[in-house]
Design brief:
- The chain has a domain at 3-111 and 283-294: Nucleotidyltransferase, domain 5.
- Helix content is 42%, strand content 20%.
- By secondary structure, it is an alpha/beta fold.
- Strand 7 (123-128) and strand 8 form a beta hairpin.
- The strands form two sheets. A five-stranded mixed beta sheet has the order 3-2-1-4-5. Strands 8-7-6-9 form a four-stranded mixed beta sheet, with helices on both faces.
- The two termini are 17 Å apart.
- It has nine helices and nine strands.
- It has helices at 45-60, 100-109, 150-166, 174-181, 186-194, 200-213, 218-242, 259-272, 285-294; strands at residues 3-9, 14-20, 25-31, 69-76, 92-99, 114-119, 123-128, 134-138, 249-252.
Length: 296
């Protein structure tokens, strides 16, 4: 039996799946964040996360010790052709590292053309047309971009709360922010982030809590709309660059799963690009990595 594996190494978690030559998935595993933001040459953050997720998938698949995969494709958040820390080591004949947007696109369209927008802790868009041309938009990271992402959502909420406090005004989101992070004040919350006591992932998790309240909270609805507009803009710009004005267009990632966000995204895309066709992705990013592993 020939085995293949696909890995989605993200900013919040890493997921691996192992499948046979027919594409039948045998097992999945999960571990923590794998991005290399702020890591040095001695960092094992990426390699540890990938290996842990793979080992868990191998256990779930009940693979005997020493079994090797023919090919493993790992999509890594922000990957640009270089590993900054310790490179991952996996039991396989060939290990292929790509940007996580590439595997998300493969999962969404199974090798076909289209544009995929991924919005989780960060955000990025990737398009490929029938001529084989590809383009990446966004994905500039939490300091310089990632519009419409969970971190962007949380940062804007905190920025607005800080601005209102400095102006001596009440902010409707401030109490929720303080409760969520267990902080006594906005100053304490900000210091905790700068000190590393609140991680980027933990800060981004606030977005999901706020989105759940958005239906009954006008303040939350405002941020949902802002995120939807940012993601729609990212999608439309990518479609234009790749010559796919009608799509198809798919959205993936934790920020796109709630009913409120889905509805807001659809409305924003319909207004910005009335002819664009939004489709449900055929599969997730891990499925896309498996697709690429099996199809070379």
């Amino acid at each position: 039996m020939t085995l293949y594996a696909g890995i989605d190494a993200g900013q919040s978690r890493t997921v691996a799946a192992i499948a046979d030559e027919s594409g039948r998935e045998l097992g999945r595993g999960e571990s923590g964040a794998a991005d290399e933001i702020g890591q040095d040459a001695n960092s094992t953050r990426l390699s540890d996360a990938i290996r842990s997720a793979y080992d868990e998938a191998a256990t779930a698949a009940k693979l005997p010790a020493g079994v090797r995969c023919e090919r493993i494709v790992a999509g890594i958040s922000g990957y640009e052709g270089r590993v900054y820390g310790r490179p991952p080591e996996l039991p396989c004949g060939e290990l292929v590292l790509v940007h996580d947007a590439v595997i998300a696109h493969a999962g969404a369209f199974e090798g076909g053309s289209g544009v995929v927008v991924i919005a989780g802790t960060g955000s990025v868009a990737y398009g490929a047309n029938e001529r084989g041309e590809t383009v990446t938009s966004g994905g500039w990271g939490y300091l310089f971009g990632d519009e419409g992402s969970a971190f962007w959502f949380a940062r804007r909420a905190i920025e607005d709360a800080i601005r209102d406090e400095d102006a001596g005004k009440k902010n409707p989101f401030a109490p929720m922010l303080l409760r969520h992070f267990g902080s006594s004040s906005l100053h304490a919350l900000v210091r905790s982030f700068y000190a590393g006591e609140i991680s980027r992932t933990a800060l981004a998790e606030f977005a999901q809590a706020a989105i759940e309240r958005s239906a009954s909270d006008p303040g939350g609805e405002r941020y949902v709309q802002q995120c939807a507009l940012a993601l729609a803009d990212l999608a439309v710009r990518t479609m234009a660059r790749i010559g796919l004005q009608a799509g198809p267009l798919a959205f993936l990632g934790g920020m796109t799963k709630s009913a409120a966000m889905k509805s807001a995204i659809i409305s924003a895309v319909e207004e910005a690009a009335p002819g664009a066709k939004i489709v449900e992705p055929a599969g997730d990013a891990v499925s896309g990595a498996l697709f690429l592993a099996r199809n070379g």
